[in-house]
Write a structure and sequence with these properties.
The structure holds two protein chains of two kinds. By secondary structure, chain A is of the alpha/beta class. Chain A contains 16 helices and eleven strands. Chain A has a single domain, classed as Alpha-Beta Complex (Amidase signature (AS) enzymes), CATH 3.90.1300. In chain A, α9 links the parallel β7 and β8. In chain A, α10 packs across α13. In chain B, β1 and β2 form a beta hairpin. Classes of the chains: A alpha/beta, B mainly alpha.
């Protein structure tokens, strides 16, 4: 089946004219029609637009001037503004919003010839780790536990992106990661995802959650595919003041480097109490694979790891409360009327935001309010500096770190919903990379006893995604992960 | 530090989110559990530590102080819930 090909294989097949971009796109649109009703991974399918883009890609391939992603069908997380195509951020408040502009990341993908199949579901404003907070309904994971057909979560917030790639109803997808929203769903869905260094991908046109943490990246079938996509998405953008003015390396080439002679750090603070034995075992297995491939394994310490999450839950809500102030029912988005302007604001936001978004906006409002700023926000920024220093110190001695991606495999829809903090703990291993801005990749490394995927995380130095890809690819080669979810195209 | 119902109402007001009286207690419980959990940062010694204010360690760029966009009122107003000519429309603010 065409939908079984990896991105690299599809690209080569298109160039060799073994099949056309229209055929590949039609195969994906048919798969979406068959599979998406079971998953709710897409909130909008743009079939007509995709076919028009596919015709253009075929014409470019025939002329010989096709871009590197010509004819490659992708899902776009509904956080990326797409010109003329509804962009909701998973929120009721943006339900009517049709951007008049294209985000830089998606514009880069279009420049390279990619085809957009539609917009992927997500946690509302990217706030969540389960995709349960979407205003457009939860996403169901394509995976189930052995002998148990309860619906599981795909992780979040990029749950639709990860589920679509895993179920083969997209060849790859854009995603974003503020506290783990690329890596945790990649781990839950048995695919690869990378949050690059802060500044690598432009944030322009990406609906803002927490601006000092938000970073776009791809989710893909394998490490090489993720590298190819990241190469297209990356690059300097004058419209984002934090965009890095650095050349974009050949990430795909870095996947073939190997790890011989690399020093891989194992942070002892990640060995958290209550970690499932099979995750600990898989972690040790991954380190063993790297040792066999010629890497040296080194114990390291990141002493402020345990404070990462609490710091995050000050910084991220504070920035979110500022960023989300723009949703006031006046300039764009939904409006709920009121008898005066203040009640128009209050009614619009009460109706338009879901419970988790309201909680975080209120936490953010409180920690920034007069009298509490120093105790919470300033304190958190100082702890954040210590978290960064931990990484700066260890990266003097090691080339990359390897940890589990998440403290568990996927859980069932409705689980971990009793109190907010239980859900927040999902991001315990991923948040430090956002706090410090460093790149992090999740690669599927094995299955747990119930048949669910588990990912390992590779962290690297700022702007050294190449080493991260080299280590990720080495883990991928050794793991030989070929398991597929029960719900997928053609199954 | 534990929030009382009046503080929850005040935060909601500052955040411009209407909170019905029936929701105050549940919100108070959630917010207190999050704030209580955040208190663990009190045990970190941050004496002499400079705050990290952003995601990047690079200096922010400056750009030329020139007009480089504009003249697109229809695109800007295209998503407005209510408009009046080239203006956003809201309920009457001044009597």
């Amino acid at each position: 089946m065409l939908t079984d090909l990896t991105l690299a294989e599809a690209r080569d097949g298109l160039r060799a004219r073994k099949f056309s971009a229209v055929e590949l796109t039609d195969a994906y649109l048919a798969a979406i029609e068959a599979v998406n009703p079971k998953l709710n991974a897409y909130v909008l399918v743009t079939g007509d637009g995709a076919r028009a883009q596919a015709l253009a890609a075929d014409a470019a391939l025939a002329r010989g001037d096709a871009g590197p992603l010509a004819g490659i069908p992708l899902a776009i997380k509904d956080l990326f503004c797409t010109e003329g195509v509804r962009t909701t951020a998973g929120s009721r408040i943006l339900e009517p919003f049709i951007p008049p502009y294209e985000s830089t990341v998606t514009a880069n993908l279009l420049r390279d010839g990619a085809i957009f199949l539609g917009k992927a579901n997500m946690d509302e404003f990217a706030m969540g780790s389960s995709n349960m907070t979407s205003a457009f309904g939860p996403v169901t994971s394509p995976w189930t536990r052995r002998g148990d057909n309860r619906a599981l979560v795909p992780g979040g917030s990029s749950g639709g992106s990860a589920a679509a790639v895993s179920a083969r109803i997209a060849l790859g997808a854009t995603a974003t990661d503020t506290g783990g929203s690329i890596r945790q769903p990649a781990s839950f869905c048995g695919i690869t995802g990378i949050k690059p260094t802060y500044g690598r991908c432009s944030r322009w046109g990406v609906v803002a959650f927490a601006s000092s943490l938000d970073q776009a990246g791809p989710v893909a079938r394998n490490v090489e595919d993720a590298a190819i996509l990241l190469g297209s998405m990356s690059g300097f953008d004058p419209k984002d003041s934090t965009s890095a003015d650095l050349p974009v390396p050949d990430f795909a080439a870095a996947c073939r480097r190997g790890v011989k002679g690399l020093r891989i750090g194992v942070p002892r603070e990640y060995r958290s109490e209550g970690m499932p034995a099979e995750i600990e075992a898989l972690w040790q297995q991954g380190l063993g694979w790297l040792r066999e491939a010629g890497a040296e394994i080194v114990d390291v310490s990141l002493p402020h790891t345990k404070y990462g999450l609490a710091t995050y839950y000050i910084v991220a809500p504070a920035e979110a409360s500022s960023n989300l102030a723009r949703y006031d029912g006046v300039r764009f988005g939904a409006r709920t009327s009121g008898e005066d302007l203040a009640s128009l604001y209050e009614n619009t936001r009460a109706e338009g935001f879901g419970a988790e978004v309201k909680r975080r906006v209120m936490i953010g409002t409180y920690v920034l309010s007069a009298g509490y700023y120093d105790a919470y926000y300033l304190k958190a920024q100082k702890v954040r500096a210590l978290i960064l220093k931990d990484f700066t110190d260890v990266f003097r001695n090691v080339d990359a770190l390897v940890t589990p991606t998440a403290p568990s495999a996927a859980f069932a829809q409705g689980e971990k919903m009793d109190d907010p903090i239980t859900m927040y703990l999902n991001d315990i291993f991923t948040v430090p990379a956002n706090m410090s801005g460093i790149p992090g990749l999740s690669v599927p490394a094995g299955l747990d006893a119930q048949g669910l995927p588990l990912g390992l995380q590779v962290l690297g130095r700022p702007f050294d995604e190449e080493t991260v890809f080299a280590v990720g690819a080495a883990l991928e080669r050794a793991a030989g992960f070929t398991a597929l979810p029960g719900i997928r195209a053609g199954a | 530090m534990s929030l009382d119902p009046a503080t929850v109402r005040r935060i909601a007001k500052l955040a411009r989110i209407r909170v019905d009286e029936a929701q105050v207690e549940a919100l108070r419980t959630d917010l207190n559990s999050i704030l209580g959990w955040i208190e663990q940062l009190n045990e970190v010694d941050v004496t002499g530590v400079e705050p990290l204010t952003g995601g990047t360690q690079m200096a922010l760029r400056l750009r030329e102080d020139v007009v480089n966009d504009g003249g697109i009122a229809d695109a800007v107003l295209g998503n407005a819930p209510d408009r009046n000519g080239e203006y956003f429309a809201v309920p009457k603010v001044v009597e």
